[in-house]
Design a protein that fits this description.
seven-stranded mixed sheet, 23% strand, five-stranded parallel sheet, alpha/beta, single chain, Trna Endonuclease, Chain: A, domain 1, 3 domains, Rossmann fold
Length: 439
């Protein structure tokens, strides 16, 4: 059953970006993994337009995963839209999962030229913004990158409200309440977020493990089948045909989030750990093959890679990067929930929180020491260390040392799940993870 517009949950961080570009020339392109909320975002934008005084007839909305438009070619697409154009009105065109339509860019470019219109499209594969399309529109598009729910959105989607209270000592403390006004333990809710992840559909099925796993299985299967295994049909792409090899690479990357990884190390590990025992006839996969499969996983927005940056030398390092999975719930679906790996899991969560906040993120290197994240946005730069705890003195020294080695004056922060104090040390801010996520 389709979700009714009245049941749509706000995704203000993304809706505000769309509204900021409303009635401007660039095509608005919303990208992200399947089922992260792109279709709902288009509906939220359409609702905003109606509330802003636009007529329903000014809005044309098409979802290319619907049977209604399946099999439509680019000429029929153009004609369908042309017949609905109001001659004396600005039109608002919404095209969902447009990568399903071959040569769609020809029609979109024609709409821009032929009609007074504002265009919004979504896609679940980075192929949508390939170099071919980028050349076609010559910079006349803006990309809105969408991710699964943040922890704050997770609370909102599940009916919880965050309120700030002042303690007797004057500090502000966050408390969470359910729909009936009862206070809920914030730590327990974060554990649920760590367990189930932030795919928006979980709010519809509830925090029930069996239902959530079924939903995540559907997300993963759709990504693999539609966006990867069918990928070889697209022009100019290296063929992805070995479903078993693909799954083994997925499992490897999911198991190694936050670890320094090379394509060669992936290939060696798959062989050394006998993960490819069922395909001996094909031997060790070539690095080029691994590269093609990893590229497909990145294009489908299942994994994101992060580069390393030498802070002192001020240059990008080309050896070893790190990979993070788009949703921690998908990782638990693939590997099973393991609380022994909490450090890398919270690192994964912080990485995507920084992306949501509009930062470019890199891993930092200072001599032999590593900075978990360098987050830059315009002229702003913040160095982050992420750790499970900042209680033991040895841990405090280990986490502070890389930041203390940096000699510039940009902000430096340690984010910890458990802290003994949030007092600054040598100008380095220490903050509890939950407070950071609820900022």
């Amino acid at each position: 059953m389709a979700k009714k517009d009245s049941q749509l949950k706000a995704r203000d961080i993304y809706l505000k970006q769309l509204i900021a570009f409303q009635d401007t020339e660039p095509v608005k392109v919303v990208t992200g993994i399947r089922r992260c909320g792109k279709s709902s975002l288009l509906k939220l934008m359409q609702r905003h337009l109606i509330e802003d005084g636009k007529l329903e007839d000014q809005i044309i909305s098409m979802n290319f995963e619907s049977m209604e438009f399946r099999g439509m070619d680019v000429q029929a697409f153009y004609q369908y839209v042309k017949e609905k154009i109001l001659p004396d009105r600005k039109m608002y065109l919404f095209f969902d999962e447009l990568q399903c339509l071959p040569q769609w860019e020809d029609a979109v470019n024609s709409f821009r030229v032929d009609f007074d219109c504002d265009i919004y499209i979504t896609g679940s594969n980075a192929y949508l913004l390939s170099s071919e399309y980028s050349t076609y529109l010559a910079g006349r598009y803006v990309e809105i990158k969408m991710y699964p729910l943040s922890f704050r959105e997770f609370l909102d989607f599940h009916g919880y409200t965050v309120k700030a209270h002042q303690t007797p000592t004057g500090k502000l403390q966050k408390r969470v309440y359910d729909a009936d006004g009862g206070q809920i333990d914030l730590v327990e809710l974060f554990e649920a977020f760590m367990h189930y992840g932030g795919m928006p559909g979980i709010a519809d099925v509830g925090l029930d493990q069996e239902r959530v796993l079924a939903l995540l299985d559907g997300v993963y299967s759709t990504v693999v089948v539609r966006d990867i295994l069918e990928r070889e049909r697209r022009r100019g792409q290296r063929q992805i045909t070995d479903a078993e090899l693909l799954r083994k690479i997925v499992l490897f990357l999911a198991d190694n989030i936050g670890n320094n990884t090379s394509l060669n190390s992936i290939s060696n590990t798959l062989v050394n750990e006998n993960m490819l025992a069922n395909r001996p006839r094909q031997g060790k996969p070539a690095t080029q093959t691994i590269a093609a499969y990893v590229a497909a996983l990145k294009e489908s927005y299942l994994f994101y890679d992060i580069k390393r940056f030498d802070v002192k030398g001020k240059e990008e390092l080309r050896t070893l990067g790190k990979y993070y999975i788009v949703d921690i719930g998908l990782r638990n679906y693939l590997l099973g929930y393991r609380d022994i790996d909490t450090g890398h899991m919270i690192e994964n969560i912080v990485y995507f929180e920084l992306l949501r906040r509009g930062y470019d993120v890199a891993v930092g290197k200072v001599g032999t020491k590593e900075i978990d994240f360098i987050a830059t946005r315009d002229s702003e730069k913040i160095y982050y260390q992420v750790t499970e705890e900042m209680v033991a003195e040895s841990t405090r020294e280990r986490e502070l040392a890389p930041l203390q080695a940096i000699r510039d004056n940009y902000e430096k922060t340690v984010i910890a799940l458990n802290v003994s104090t949030t007092a600054s040390v040598d100008g380095i801010r220490i903050i509890r993870l939950l407070d950071f996520l609820l900022e």
